[in-house]
Design brief:
Layout: H1 2-8, H2 10-28, H3 34-38, H4 41-72, H5 74-80, H6 85-103, H7 108-126, H8 134-154, H9 159-182, H10 184-189, H11 195-199, H12 201-223, H13 232-248, H14 255-274
Helix pairs in contact: 2-4, 2-8, 4-5, 4-6, 4-7, 4-8, 6-7, 7-8, 8-9, 9-12, 9-14, 12-13, 13-14
Length: about 280
């Protein structure tokens, strides 16, 4: 059981669920009543379906990366090796099936969306993640897909929402590139053509810095919009953290440091989730 929980990363899924509901309450929904949003059955089915697909995505990703993770994440492999590959595949198929069936209660369009989402996750895990740049772009796109699902449900669009989505996407893209720096050794040995492997660590670092500059500019624009309310403080804080990270990434060359920067961006994204509530102030 512990091995399976480690594979599906339940803490990540919980954060995504919270983020979907906070985005629904404070950004996307026109309903000012929090209770009505929380009791919305269709929204629950949608969030539950995406959560199951995310869990299945972690499982299939772990299935394909077991050998590589023995180098990049040896401590994790010690735990997850107690879960057989056959059981992983079974759970992957079961979660995908339940997700699609549950989404039918939302609409046939939602069910089709989940089918496409499931296929995209498999394609990424099986093929795309091994391709430089495309792997990073697709991983970041898949990461924001649960929010896109909620966005489509509410059919709400504005300048602030679009910019917020772009900002989140860029942060995740920076995080994915930093993860490639962390996993450089294992990717090199097993032939994953990630950005650092294909073009060198130096090139990857400059691209990280470039994306950080773009992210900071988007964050500044967002901070000036009245729609973000008190969340403007988060964007200012993010700019400072991003700029410092963009500079320091060129001065350190150890896996330990790359992992630290990766976790900093991860925490920054986590703060962004909970600070969504500041939009109403």
């Amino acid at each position: 059981m512990i091995g399976l929980l480690s594979v599906v990363r339940g803490y990540n899924i919980l954060v995504i669920i919270i983020a979907q509901y906070l985005a629904s309450i404070y950004i996307l929904s026109d309903d000012v009543c929090v209770v009505s949003v929380l009791l919305n059955k269709q929204l629950f089915y949608l969030v539950f379906s995406t959560s199951l697909l995310i869990a299945s995505g972690y499982i299939i990703n772990d299935f394909y990366d077991t050998e590589k993770d023995k180098i990049n994440k040896p401590q994790k492999v010690i735990i997850t090796e107690f879960v057989s590959k056959k059981f992983k595949l079974t759970m992957y198929l079961v979660l995908n099936t339940i997700s699609v069936l549950v989404s039918i209660f939302v609409s046939w369009r939602a069910s089709l969306f989940m089918l496409l989402f499931a296929f995209a996750i498999w394609l990424y895990s099986h093929k795309l993640k091994r391709i430089a740049i495309i792997g990073n772009i697709s991983a970041s796109a898949l990461a924001i897909t649960p929010f896109f699902a909620v966005f489509l449900y509410y059919k709400n669009i504005s300048e602030a929402i679009v910019l917020h989505a772009i900002f989140l996407y860029l942060l995740i893209l920076v995080r994915e590139l930093l993860k490639d720096l962390v996993n450089y050794e294992g990717d090199l040995i097993y032939g994953y053509q990630t950005l650092p492997v294909r073009f060198s660590l130096i090139v990857a670092k400059y691209i990280v810095s470039f994306l950080i500059v773009i992210s900071s500019l988007v964050g500044y624009v967002l901070s000036q919009l009245p729609e973000v309310g008190a969340m403007f403080g988060y964007f200012y804080f993010s700019i400072v953290v991003l700029v410092v990270s963009g500079v320091l990434v060129h001065f350190f060359r150890t896996k330990k440091w790359y992992l630290f920067q990766y976790n900093v961006i991860k925490v920054l994204i986590l703060f962004g989730v909970f600070f969504i509530a500041l939009v109403s102030y």
